[in-house]
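Annex B, item 7. Sequence and structure tokens for protein A, then protein B.
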Amino acid sequence: MINTDPNKEIGRRLREARDSAGLSQAELAKALGYESATAVSLIEAGERKFKIEDLQKAAELFHRDIGYFLGHDVPRMDVKVALRADKDLSDEDKKAVLHFIELAKKRHEKK
């Protein structure tokens, strides 16, 4: 987020997340507890500050790290690395998780 107004960057990323989720400004406003879509419109335009409590709600709603909204590119966790680090899962369970991921990828490719 170099040389960028933080409010504009947060607004841009909020709009990006909202669009990716297929939500309207009115739907997002309702989810965040705002009375109208105008508040979301102003936040997305960088003309209204986004309260930290609402930022947390948005992060949970969109399944994103708060750092994403602040302009930080948060690297995605590699599932294979995560599975190697998890000592509680058996090798059989780890194989099942990887198999499920491959099935999901194939299903996504068909769309």
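Protein B:
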Amino acid sequence: MKVGTDGVLLGAWSSIKNYPDTILDIGSGTGIISLMLAQRADAMTIDAVEVDENAYEQTVENFEQSDWSDRLYCYNATFQEFADEIAEENETYDLIVSNPPFYNDEFETEDIARNKARFTSAMSFEELVSGVVKILSSDGTFAVIIPFKEEENFISIAKKKHLFLNRVCWVQGNPTSAIKRSLMEFSFHLSKVKEEHLIIEFERHLYTKEYINLTKNFYLKM
């Protein structure tokens, strides 16, 4: 699986200002988000969960070859199974992140595994939020990136589970394109929402100062 812009954005944007001791990445794919957070944060426990076996094996290989292999661990399971097991052990995470699979026609390819990884029915937003609230610490944060058109629905689902939006960043590909993604941060605490706006590039490969500042620590050439 390729490293996508969505994962890079979430890995760079997620707040670590509360110095999380425990971090969870739901649906790790290549493990890029976990690796970025290991680079940014001193958390001793950075777990990932990935249901697709091929993606899981990629994550494990990338974890093992990184400088932070002693702090990174991936589980091959559904998030629902994982969340139930963690909840039974009364364990929680201070920061939970997810670039959840979403699906529409533009993402349908000949690659069955990639379609599966992108197919929302593998884990609905309701299932994602339900699992998160079981294992998020009382002062923890949950960060996610989703299509902008799903933002209102996701906020509503989270609110029903007493997770409140604290911060949002609307992402545009370029100055003339529509808002395509929403980066959102939730917690159990109600607060005034901090609103941000990010444009990735002026034109192809001519990146904005804001995008460069956000991601430059993770690219070899930026």
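Comment on protein B: The longest helix spans residues 53-64.
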